Amino acid sequence: MSTVNRTARLSTRLLLAGALALGLAPTAQAAPPGIPGTSTALSELAGLAVAAEGTSSGYSRELFPHWATVSGACNTRETVLKRDGVNVVTDSACAATSGTWASPYDGASWSAASDVDIDHVVPLAEAWRSGARTWTTARRQSFANDLSGPQLIAVTDNVNQSKGDKDPAQWKPPLSSYWCTYAKMWTRVKHTWGLTVDSAEKSALQTMLGRC
Question: Where does the record place the GmrSD restriction endonucleases C-terminal domain (predicted)?
Fold first, then answer.
């Protein structure tokens, strides 16, 4: 990202922060469905199979068809943008033309959908390495577009890019106050989809849940 773009985005963030402080721009932190309570998350974590992380050999994002059509002209990304934002207005193609998004990973707020990514809480490549490589393409598509659980969330784009395909032993949200919720989300997704955890990942999740 250029220095000019970084400066512009910082200015936008500061302006939004000031507006929020004055109550001029209503916002709400993204909250996907299906986030379990602490005791349930701990129980689900204890029940996950522990295995060494598998290989990335053969992995491709195309093996997880994502941003599938949900209804009409709206796909999964656009549906999450509308769900996680405030006062989101869309055009006839279902693209968000205005709204406000608060990213729980870093606490930033944005007024342009282009500044927001839809994060796969358990990244597609991580899922591949922990069991999804044996799935059918149809099951991988369901995983990549799962709106019924806490697998998809709107967050700041460059924060999502810094996460990449890392698990919680390698990456955690910049806001430590969100670690508890993030660990609950990650654990629920792996539990729901029958994915494994490696020992370092499980230890990191236990530590994060210990902050709840």
Answer: 113-206
Pairwise CA distance, residues 13 & 16, whole Å: 5
pLDDT tens-place string over residues 15-53: 343 333 333 344 567 889 999 999 999 999 999 999 999
Helices (H) and strands (E) in the chain, counts: 8, 7
Residue 19 burial (10 A CB sphere; 0-12, 13-18, 19+): middle
- Tell me which residue has tokens 């955690």: 172
In tens, the pLDDT along 187-210 reads 999 999 999 999 999 999 999 999
pLDDT digits (tens, 9 = 90+) for 165-192: 999 999 999 999 999 999 999 999 999 9
The parent domain of residue 126 ranges over 3-209
Domain count across the chain: 1
The SS3 of residue 194 is coil
Collapse the DSSP code of 146 into the 3-class scheme (helix H, G, I; strand E, B; otherwise coil) and give the result: coil
Rg (CA), the chain: 17
The CA distance from 181 to 185, in Å, is 6
CA–CA distance, 207 with 49 (Å, rounded to integer)? 18
> Whole-angstrom Cα distance, residue 32 to residue 147?
8
What are the CA-CA distances from residue 95 to residues 81, 131, 151 (Å)? 9, 33, 21
| pTM score, whole prediction | 0.87
What residue has token string 């033309």?
Answer: 97
